[in-house]
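TL;DR need C-alpha cells for one chain.
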Amino acid sequence: MNKFSCLLLMALCPSLLTAHHGLANFNLNVDISVEGVITDIAMINPHSWVYIDVTNEDGVITNWKCELRGGTVLRRSGWDETLFEIGSPVYITGSPDRFEDNTCYTGTITFASGLSLDRYDQVTEADRNLRQEFDLRRLSNGDPDISGDWAAEQVVMTDPRGLEGTLVPLSVAQEFEPGQVPAGRRAFQGSRGTPESFSEDPLSTTWDNPSPFQLTEAGLTAIEGFDGSSTDNPRLRCETTNILWDWSFDNPINRIVQTEEVIRLIYGTMVFERAIHLNETEFPADLIPSRSGYSIGRWENDELIVNTQGFLAGILLADARTPHSDQMRVEERFRIDPVNGALVRSYVAQDPTYFSGQYRGNDTMFVSSYPWEPYNCDDRSFRSDLIGQ
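>> reply
TL;DR here they are.
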C-alpha cells in the first residue's frame, strides 16, 4: 500500500467506522448457496433485495430474498434492474440471515448470461476515483459557488464479497488482498471471524455501545430504554438522524442549490433538506424547533461558516447511545480543495444539557459522476421490535 493510500485511510478512518448499516442480521461465518429463478428485484434504499423462487428435490417452491447494497450505490456502481431479468435463473453464494428464514446476504451473484458479480464489484469505473482538479466558480457577489451534486466516496470491504476484512475507500481498494485488514485497523464489526460475529446476542453487540461522551443525568434519562436495532433509531424508521450524520452516511449523493441569500442542502440519505441563511446575523426569536434546526452562514476567506441551533431533541449517535437535546449547538465549516475537487466539511457539536465535551468530525465530498436521486427509503431488514409480531 502506498503512502497516499495510508494518508487517505487515516483521513477517512472516523467515517469508515460508522459507514455501514451493520452486519448483525447475518451470520457471515456460515456459507450458503441459493439457486432459483428471479421473481422480483427491489433496488431500494437502504438495502436492495432480489427475490428468488427456489425449488427443492420434492418440487416444493419457496420464495427467498437476498440482500444487496442500497439501490443508489448499486446504480453508482453500474448495476441496474436489467441485470435481474424476471424469470431467469440465478445462483447466489453468501450467508444466512440470523433471524428470518429463506433470507440471505449476497456475497456473489451469477446470472443466466454467465456474468458473475461480487457484492462490491463496479460494473462501471466512473466511481473508482472521483478526485479531479476543480475550477472554483463564483457568484456575481464574489462568493464561491458550491452548487451541484456532491458524492461521498464509496467505501467497500477489502473482500469484494463483503464477508471479511474491513471498509476502505473505493479508490484504494484494489491495493489490498481480499479480506486484508490494514495495519492499525481491525476487522469490521460482525464480519467473518470477528468476536462480534460469534456473539450470542449480535444485535446488542452491534447497537448497544456506550456513549463516547460523559452523559449528564438528563442525558442518561433521555437515552434510557433506547434500542438502536429497532425503530427507536430514526434511520430504522426511514427518518433523518441529524444534520451531521446523514450528510456522509451510506455513501450518499448530496445536492447543493445556492444563491446569494440562501444555500439549500438536499441530503442524499433519507428525505431531508435544510437552508443556510446568508444575510442574517441573529437567530429568529420565535424559532420553531426542527430536526434540521435553523442555520445562519457567512463566507470568510472562501470558507463557509455555519452556525445552527433550534433543534428538536433527538439522537446524535444511534450506534453509541448518545442523545442530543434541544439546546445542542453546531458549527460547520465548508471549504473547497481545488487540487482534488473536494468539498470538505468539519464540524463541532456541543450540548452541555445532555453531554460534556465536544462532538467533532469531518467528511469529504467530490463532484458526483451520478446525479442526485430521491432516497425512497423502504427498509425491509429485520428489526428487533418486530420480534413476536
